[in-house]
Amino acid sequence: MAHNEDRTAQADQVTKVSKLVADQRQAMFTTTAPDGTLTSRPMAVQEAEFGGDLWFFAEASSRKVQHLANDPQVNVTFSSSDSWVSLTGRASVVRDPAKKRELWNAVVEAWFPDGKDDDGIVLLHVDGDSAEYWDSPGGRVATALSFAKAKLTGKQYSGGDNEKVDLP
Question: How far apart are CA 5 and CA 1, in angstroms?
Answer without folding.
Answer: 6
